[in-house]
Backbone:
């Protein structure tokens, strides 16, 4: 890596700084911000400028040719023109979990959610915390007599994609009425922008509920519940249960995989890889070098940092595969 | 990073202006343009609707050997008033736009540079924009300059995705005012501030009127870097923001304390809308016709 760094430094005039523009997912932003800062500290001539605008906007900007690097929690499909025409490559970076967060004053116990209950709340069919179905599942939890204020994403969101992907696999009602996507037609609630917006609004709104990536819940000291997995167990999201979801799934060569509702009794069911997206061919040789060097550095050095922030690092076999795949960038 | 630098009101002599599209970098929610000064550069300049004149960094002014003139008082975000110096460029170029004999203010911009992560060399403000039709396309990161309005005349643009409104100013401010905004259902006047990296900024009287004083006090502390130093804010979220007919939903808000800026007269504006919100729009500032248009690019 040291030799690579020197190559970047030597290829640029002493005073020049090359800007690599990236944008997209807010889900991995806490670790991306640290990575890009650290990479810039190590390579002052390379600045990766990342805007956490949501996966939907990031993908659109990447397709429009505005960005050098996109970020998404939703893998693009085969029939997406960006994949077939521009040959966009997916590089998984870390694994995270989408957790149901809530703000119920004085509540000390975790709430359990089945997919049907989650879907019911988000569809606006279950509107109160003391709904009989919630009470029945959560015996011993003192649920308040209050309306549920649903907070969802207002922007095109990979976090929404992961949640809707899980619910479409587990709730026929959700699959038929809402479906899967970065933007869905919400039946209830208030829209907020980004994971940070949902977390912030839940934090300041009593009796509200939303969904965010685990790190946002921890950083904002928000309570989050356990979710029923494919083995019918209620699992709380943490690094171990998120890694268990990844371990239960095999990784294809193009890295596009869904690990929601993964098999395995310890697997957290709303887990997902998140990806950096790059064109297969990058015409600017310096930018190409920076992006490839960053991807390699992210695997060799960044994975340790991911765990410190609260993301599950890539399984070793996947990390090795990503390292090898860096050669695909032309 | 909202700013207002007053004092240098000289209208630049325009020698060339035609339809032109130039890229910009969007760094930490700031519009950063490449600008040539006296044939040297490129240098990084922020485009700021809240700055009256053109400003240049003190260190660059010295490096370029620009004459430093009299001291002048400036206003802006930060710890209060500060003394700047005046200077004059022989030539300033933005793409193919050339401005000659441009008066400018000289400030130490190193604090803002640290926030940006790269040197900030100056600010283009009202004196640069005032004679132009400028379109800021945040999505494609392009700025377009038009000789004539890009919109057909007399076409109302007030729906869920686009609004237009007369460009008005209050008192000594050069920030375009947007009336008929609603925050949590309460009507407020906001300004359009492309020099602000924040989203919605609320000023003290608006915070009181909206009943958000306690949330503002207990909000997440944050720092804002201005031309005059740093200012302390708190961060939170409001449930509903509507800009005329465009419903933004819940929005991150920066609660301003007294002393944030000397342009915070609550009678003039309840708050401002900065780049964290504007980045979802194409903003067209038609200064000659005094018309502002916002077109949403969100999904």
Residues:
């Amino acid at each position: 890596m040291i030799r690579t760094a020197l190559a970047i430094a030597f290829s640029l005039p002493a005073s020049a700084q090359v800007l690599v523009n990236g944008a997209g997912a807010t889900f991995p932003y806490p670790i991306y911000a640290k990575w890009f800062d650290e990479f810039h500290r190590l390579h002052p001539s390379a600045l990766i400028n990342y805007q956490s605008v949501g996966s939907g906007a990031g993908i659109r900007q990447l397709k429009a040719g505005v960005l050098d690097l996109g970020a998404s929690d939703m893998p693009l499909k085969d029939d997406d023109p960006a994949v077939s025409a521009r040959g966009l490559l997916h590089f998984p970076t870390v694994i995270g979990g989408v957790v149901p967060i809530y703000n119920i004053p004085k509540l000390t116990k975790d709430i359990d959610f089945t997919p049907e209950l989650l879907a019911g709340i988000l569809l606006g069919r279950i509107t109160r915390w003391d709904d009989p179905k919630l009470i029945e599942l959560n015996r011993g939890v003192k649920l308040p007599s209050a309306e549920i204020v649903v907070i969802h994403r207002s922007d095109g969101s990979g976090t929404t994609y992961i949640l809707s992907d899980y619910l479409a696999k587990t709730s026929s009602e959700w699959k038929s009425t809402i479906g899967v996507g970065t933007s869905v037609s919400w039946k209830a609630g208030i829209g907020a922008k980004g994971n940070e917006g949902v977390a912030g609004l839940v934090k300041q709104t009593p009796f509200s509920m939303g969904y965010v990536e685990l790190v946002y819940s921890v950083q904002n000291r928000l309570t989050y519940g356990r979710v029923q997995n494919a083995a019918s167990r209620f699992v709380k999201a943490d690094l171990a249960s998120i890694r268990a979801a990844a371990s239960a799934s095999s990784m294809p060569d193009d890295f596009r995989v869904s690990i929601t509702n993964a098999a395995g009794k310890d697997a957290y069911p709303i887990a997902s890889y998140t990806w950096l997206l790059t064109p297969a061919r990058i015409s600017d040789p310096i930018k190409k070098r920076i992006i490839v060097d960053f991807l390699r550095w992210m695997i060799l050095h960044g994975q340790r940092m991911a765990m410190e922030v609260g993301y599950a690092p890539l399984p070793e076999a996947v990390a090795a595969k990503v390292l090898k795949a860096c050669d695909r960038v032309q | 990073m909202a700013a207002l630098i007053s004092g240098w009101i000289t209208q630049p002599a325009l020698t060339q202006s035609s339809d032109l599209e130039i890229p910009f970098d969007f760094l930490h929610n700031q519009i950063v343009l490449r600008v040539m000064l006296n044939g040297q550069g490129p240098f990084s300049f922020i485009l700021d609707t809240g700055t009256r004149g053109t400003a240049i960094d003190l260190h660059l002014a010295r490096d370029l050997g620009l004459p430093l003139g009299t001291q002048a008082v400036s206003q802006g975000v930060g710890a209060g008033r500060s003394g700047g110096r005046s200077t004059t460029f022989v030539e300033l170029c933005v793409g193919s736009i050339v401005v000659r004999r441009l008066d400018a203010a000289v400030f130490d911009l190193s604090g803002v540079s640290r926030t940006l992560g790269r040197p900030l060399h100056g600010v283009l403000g009202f004196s640069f924009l005032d004679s132009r039709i400028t379109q800021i396309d945040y999505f494609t990161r392009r700025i377009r300059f038009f000789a004539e309005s890009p919109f057909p005349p007399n076409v109302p643009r007030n729906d869920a995705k686009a609004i237009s409104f007369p460009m008005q100013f209050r008192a000594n401010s050069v920030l375009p005012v947007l009336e008929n905004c609603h925050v949590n259902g309460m009507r407020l006047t906001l300004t359009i501030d492309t020099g602000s990296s924040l989203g919605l900024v609320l000023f003290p009287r608006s915070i009181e009127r909206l009943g958000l004083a306690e949330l503002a006090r207990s909000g997440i502390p944050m720092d804002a870097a201005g031309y005059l130093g740093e200012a302390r804010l708190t961060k939170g979220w409001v449930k509903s923001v509507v800009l005329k007919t465009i419903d933004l939903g819940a929005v991150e808000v920066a609660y301003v304390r007294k002393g944030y800026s000397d342009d915070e007269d609550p009678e003039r504006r309840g708050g401002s809308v900065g780049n964290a919100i504007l980045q979802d729009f194409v903003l067209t500032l038609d200064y000659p016709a005094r018309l502002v248009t916002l077109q949403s690019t969100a999904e």
In short: The interface with chain A takes residues 25-27, 29, 117-118, 139-141, 215, 220, 235-237, 239-240, 248-252, 279-280, 298-299 of chain B (CB under 8 Å). The first strand of chain B starts at residue 13 and ends at 16. Residues 162-294 of chain B form a domain with the Cathepsin D, subunit A; domain 1 fold (CATH 2.40.70.10). Helices of chain B lie at 58-63, 110-116, 126-129, 204-209, 213-217, 275-278.
